[in-house]
Amino acid sequence: MSGAADEARRAVAAVWRAESARVVATLTRYTGDFSLAEDLAQEAVADALAQWPSSGIPRNGAAWLTTAAKRKAIDVWRRRERYDARVAALAHALDEAQPDADPWDPDEIDDDVLRLVFVACHPVLAPPARVALTLRVVAGLEADEIARAFLVPTATVQQRIVRAKRALAEAGVPFEVPPPAERPMRMAAVLGVLYLVFNEGHSASAGEDLLRPDLAREAIRLTRILAALLPGEPEAHGLLALMELTASRFAARIDARGEPVLLADQDRRRWDRGAIARGRAALARVDAMGRGRGPYALQAAIAECHALAPDVARTDWALIVRLYEALAQVAPSPVVDLNRAVAVAEASGPEAGLRIVDELVAGGRLRTYHLLPAVRGELLARLSRDDEARAEFAAAAELVRNERQRAVLQARAAAPGAATSRAR
């Protein structure tokens, strides 16, 4: 590859990564067709790769891509014999376009991107399709990048994206921010997708690596954009706070060999103080709105307790228990109860935590969740009930899909009393 071609390839990749959401959103607004807009944007990227090595890299690459894609839209409509007022309007807009104008200010995010996020996370799509489409059209990731992140074949991701576009078209999903009456439910879907992406980066569900920081960072970036678009939406800021505070520990969560390091053993000097400050600031914005803390903000408050504590022993476990109790009120789930059991064990002793865990076992709702036997094994080990702990760790190792986590659980099953690693 020549130097000019390589430079152009890097420039196109950078522009696409930073501005793809805005380009696709703008095209969707012009064409009224989400699927067509994404296809046109991809064709414009191909043109850029071919032309920029000889013509030079434009000052405003995103505007260049948008203009090129709009011209292709006109060609499409001509071929479809729909050369009507829509073409005239678009042509007029092209006359006014200035490809070498100042680049978009990244801090000035228009409503088109917000519309795009809501379309990609529309309820007519299944959760895996929402994730794939969001990462493709909002984050600008290629299908093979998404496939690698979620350990599925590239063809699977491509099929999900194609089917998602078809489903949106068949449902006639409009390119718009939902009306206020629908916004809470739709907002929950958007935040749920972003949290799902972050969690996969925070704790990989399968594979050999415990963390996928790139995926987590992408989720944080998108959530930051969403929070900027919706400054009065507390849960957007709550989710951002939760992500920042959780991600602050990434560097200390694995050792040099990629092995997991439990909370009690982490070198807290390696925690990212900048991320902690950003997370606390986002949580403060939630509180400043005066509308109470939702599920994400409550979880962020728990993460803040950990971030401020000098070590596990001096963590305010009583406050964490109260926060989990509040979380169970607004978002009840057996996973919340399991996490509360861990906090109760730290605050009041392993017997108290074990009683909650045993209630969850009796309820049977987490029978396939590896952390249920893992937590029970940990509490049993702290009570010196080693044979029972060994069985629980072995059961957890059978359930988990991540190789790093499985190795840790197998080691605990072999020697349950060797360490009583406190708090996950």
Automatic annotation (TrEMBL):
Q: Which domain of life is it from?
A: Bacteria
Residue intervals of the RNA polymerase sigma factor 70 region 4 type domain: 119-168
Q: InterPro entries, alphabetically?
A: DUF6596, RNA_pol_sigma-70_dom, RNA_pol_sigma70_r2, RNA_pol_sigma70_r4_t2, RNA_pol_sigma_r2, RNA_pol_sigma_r3/r4-like, WH-like_DNA-bd_sf
Q: Where is the RNA polymerase sigma-70 region domain?
A: 18-82
- Any idea where the DUF6596 domain is? 186-285
Q: Which UniProt keywords apply?
A: Sigma factor, Transcription, Transcription regulation
Q: Which GO terms describe its biological process?
A: DNA-templated transcription initiation
Listed PANTHER family: BLL6612 PROTEIN, BLL6612 PROTEIN-RELATED
Q: Which family does it belong to?
A: Belongs to the sigma-70 factor family. ECF subfamily.
Q: What is this protein called?
A: RNA polymerase sigma factor
Organism annotation: Microbacterium oryzae
